Amino acid sequence: MTEAEFLATLRALPLHPGARDLRDDAATLGELVLTTDTLVEDVHFLPTDPAGDVAWKLLAVNLSDLAAKGAVPEGVLLNLPLSEDGWDRAFLAGLAAALAAFGTRLIGGDTVSLPGGAPRVLTCTAIGRSARAPARSGARPGDQLWVTGTIGDAGPGLAAARGEIDSPDLRDAYRRPRPRLAEGRALGQVVTAMADVSDGLLIDAARMAAASGLAVTVRLEAVPLSGAYMAVKGADRAARLSAVTAGDDYELLFALPAGVAPPVAATWVGAFAAGEGMTLTDAGESLPLPGRLGWEHDGGAGVAD
Ligand SMILES: Nc1ncnc2c1ncn2[C@@H]1O[C@H](COP(=O)(O)OP(=O)(O)OP(=O)(O)O)[C@@H](O)[C@H]1O
Ligand SMILES: Cc1ncc(C[n+]2csc(CCOP(=O)(O)O)c2C)c(N)n1
Ligand SMILES: [Mg+2]
Ligand SMILES: [Mg+2]
Ligand SMILES: [Mg+2]
To answer: Could you tell me if residue 134 is inside a domain?
Structure first.
């Protein structure tokens, strides 16, 4: 079963009104914003990644969802396995540093053991506060699509973490993403819709459009690429398609009415219109959509369904 099929079935279960129909980055309970994300060894990080960086990424991917709702972090709950002493100690040191860097605190959690040889699985639940938590579903026809920062670094960053290419900048983008908390708080006041980019710019823009009941056009030539990315991959059409489908960006993707300038540094990458589906253009030319728009989990790996 695919992730999308699984979520569609979950939507038929009794849903809390704060669940936002399971189509958002986070749930809301009054001003509280609640989100949870898991990192799995060999799916989300490498066994060779430093344990302190895994702690950083665990917090960062969760706080990124709070950022997308314009929230100030209140604290985190952590569900963690004990593994090897050295790894666990380095993880705890990295965790202390990440909590301090992100200005947040522990609320609680749970600690378990793993069967021998099992991959590590680490879960964080982050809680924040936001007076106005923008939804993925709020875009209006005519709104423009914007993104913070640059897109695509974590794709070749994984190759760098594997030692296949030499780029400390790209490797760090993969291991130590920076949640856009300050930008999210400023944007939360003005955007019509917002999400973070975890699975890929195309798939996350398509989800925003679908949740909003709209069509979206993405302008490939406008997608911002980093110097480190272009040094390794170039900036041609293939490089751009790779960047917008790689995922692990943790930048903010948001909608604003035409003519409204974002209050933070961001790049205009597309627009919403009445209708449905995604159109991809490159300098005015319409392109066929790539076979995959981004990352989707699948239960097919060796397990019959
Ligand atoms: N197993 C599950 N049980 C209940 N709700 C789920 C489950 N998996 C996902 N959801 C819900 O589905 C929606 C989309 O989740 P998703 O994980 O795609 O968002 P995200 O965390 O922003 O993205 P990513 O996981 O790629 O960072 C959210 O409302 C989330 O709470
Ligand atoms: C070892 C390794 N292989 C591949 C990837 C790429 N990747 C895995 S999950 C995901 C989407 C975000 O996760 P989720 O949707 O679960 O929040 C992406 C882009 C990686 N990070 N590490
Ligand atoms: Mg998200
Ligand atoms: Mg998630
Ligand atoms: Mg995902």
So the answer is: no
Total domains in the fold of the chain: 2
ipTM of model: 0.99
pLDDT at 304: 42
Could you tell me if the CB of 295 is within 6 A of ligand 2?
yes
Query: Which residue, by CA, sits nearest to atom 13 of ligand 1?
Result: 22
Quote the domain boundaries for residue 100.
3-129
For residue 252, report the distance from its CA to the centre of ligand 3, in Å. Answer: 9
Of 97, 129, 161, the residue at which a domain comes to its end is 129
Q: Is the CB of 248 under 6 A from ligand 2?
A: yes
Work out which ligand 2 atom sits closest to the CA atom of 174: 21
In angstroms, what is the span from residue 302 Cα to ligand 5's centroid? 20
Query: Residue 277 sits in a domain of what CATH number?
Result: 3.90.650.10
CA distance 115 to 195: 36
Query: What CATH number is attached to the domain comprising 52?
Result: 3.30.1330.10
In a domain, 139, yes or no: no
What pLDDT digit, counting tens, does each position of 239-292 carry?
Answer: 999 999 999 999 999 999 999 999 999 999 999 999 999 999 999 999 999 999
Ligand 2 centroid, distance to 246 Cα (angstroms): 9
Q: Is residue 46 within 6 Å of ligand 2 at its C-beta?
A: yes
Q: Is the pLDDT of residue 301 over 90?
A: no
Q: Based on the domain organization, do 106 and 160 belong to the same domain?
A: no
154 and 276, same domain (yes or no): yes
Q: pTM for the complete prediction?
A: 0.98
Is there a single domain that holds both residue 77 and residue 149?
A: no
* pLDDT tens, residue by residue, 275-290: 999 999 999 999 999 9
Q: How confident is the model at residue 300 (pLDDT cuts 50, 70, 90)?
A: confident
